[in-house]
Amino acid sequence: MLRLLPALLIVAFVPSLHADEWKEHTSTEGRFKVLMPGKPEYGKDKLQGDTYLHRFTFESEDQNEAFSIMYQDTPGLGLVDAATILDAAKNGGIASVKNGKLVREKKIKLGEHQGLEFEFSADGIDRVTWQVYIVGDRLYQVGVVEIKESLPDESITKFQKSFQVTAE
Question: 0.70 cut: is pTM over it?
Answer without folding.
Answer: yes
